[in-house]
Structures are given as C-alpha cells and as structure tokens.
Structure to design on (256 residues):
C-alpha cells in the first residue's frame, strides 16, 4: 500500500499528531495501510485482507482518531510544506450516501436532528452530504466543511476563508457563491473576488484570466473522489467522514 518513501514522509506526521497513550500503537504502518486500503476501496472493515492485520484494530484506530480530530491535525501538519495563496478556490460537491450511512445514534434527538448533526440530508440528487473545500493555488485542499445534502454552499464560505493562515490575493468560486455581501467580505479582508454573477444579477467584474483557473479545484475533487469512500459516503458519523476527507487530502499533498 505505502512505499517506503511515502511512509518515511507520513510516519513523522502521524507520530506528531496521534494521541499519546501508555503503550504505542501496535504495528502503526500496517494499521495505516489497512485504513487507507479500506477507504480507497470502499470495502467493509471486515473485508480487510488478513495481511493488513485484525480489521477491528484498524476500525477502532480510525474511528477513535476521527473523534479526537487527529486526521484534521494531520492535514494541518502536511500544509507546513507551504501553502500557495496567490489564488484560493472555493468549491462544493454533493456526495451520495450509502444506505448504511443512516444509522448513527440519535442521542436523544429526533431523526431530523440526528441527520443535521451528522451532515446528512435529502436533496434532488438523493440522500447525501454537501462537502465544501478551500484549496490553494496549486489545487491542494486546505480545509473542509460538511453539511446536509440539501444545504447551500455559501454559508460555509466565510468559515473556510477564516481557516486560512494569511490573506490570499484572489478568491475564485463559481456562481453558487455569488453574493454582494460575500464579495464585500472578501474585499474587507484585502483580497479580490473572482465570482461571476448569476443570470438574474447585475454584471460584476470577474477577470477571465483568473476565473479560468477554477478547473484546479475541480481536478482536486476528481482526485479525492478516486477514493471510493469519498465518492460515496459509507460513514454514519460526520466526524468519520470528515476524517476520510482529511486523510485523502493529506495523501494528495504528499504526492505533489
């Protein structure tokens, strides 16, 4: 699964962000390979090949670390390689949820409250999740936000911009992010928006030579969705699905 070169880059990052228990993880590399195999192939945990170790060890490690925010910290650590903020890109995608994804605990609330908490909902595309990303100028994911499938992308835009360590030169997004107040927020930060107006809005300045680069973030989603557990959501909880997005993005950073 992981070459020696890939593991040499990944191991110190995992060691830096993983929880420190009384005993170190048993065969950490094999456990990480099992986690990657499962999510790249979209298989059941019990379908893990025997050579990757006990399935329950990989499952417990991934789920526990997802709850503790380890995968988000791993993505933050890999970004120390250098984020390019000449242009940043915002984009959202709909992820269809597998029927097995609708089984998280209600925790005292209604089914609708549970689905909202776990970022699951019904839209015209079916039952699923809306995943939004902010990417740097090289098309590498910086941060994610997830919401129920029927949610609009715009409410997640400002929190994603706030996750940046510095002010970008340009913020590039499609018409789904067209909003006078959002453009005003971008200007107030000291950045410039490249967001085309909707057909029912007055024209706004959107330089084509900037906006034409938006395919960078579309290619990012294409790479991430090569992971079957990203293309289809199998996870019951929002924390686990966010963990998969961050883990897939981390491996994408290490390849570039």
């Amino acid at each position: 699964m992981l070459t020696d070169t890939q593991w040499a880059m990944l191991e110190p990052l995992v060691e830096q962000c993983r929880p420190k228990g009384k005993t170190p993880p048993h065969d950490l590399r094999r456990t990480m390979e099992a986690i990657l195999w499962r999510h790249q192939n979209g298989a059941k945990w019990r379908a893990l090949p025997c050579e990757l170790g006990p399935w329950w060890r990989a499952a417990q490690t991934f789920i526990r670390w997802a709850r503790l925010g380890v995968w988000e910290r791993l993505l933050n650590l890999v970004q120390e390689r250098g984020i390019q903020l000449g242009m940043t890109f915002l984009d959202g995608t709909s992820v269809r949820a597998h029927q097995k994804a609708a089984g998280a605990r209600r925790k005292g609330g209604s089914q609708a409250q549970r689905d909202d908490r776990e970022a699951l909902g019904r839209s015209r595309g079916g039952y699923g999740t809306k995943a939004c990303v902010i990417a740097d100028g090289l098309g590498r994911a910086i941060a994610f936000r997830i919401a129920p499938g029927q949610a609009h992308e715009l409410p997640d835009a400002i929190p994603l911009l706030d996750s940046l360590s510095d002010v970008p030169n340009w913020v590039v997004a499609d018409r789904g992010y067209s909003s006078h107040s959002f453009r005003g927020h971008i200007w107030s930060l000291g950045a410039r928006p490249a967001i085309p107006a909707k057909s029912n809005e007055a024209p706004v300045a959107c330089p084509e030579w900037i906006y034409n680069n938006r395919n960078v973030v579309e290619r990012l989603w294409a790479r991430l969705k090569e992971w079957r557990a990203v293309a289809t959501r199998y996870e019951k909880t929002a924390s686990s699905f966010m963990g998969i997005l961050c883990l897939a993005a981390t491996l994408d950073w290490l390849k570039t």
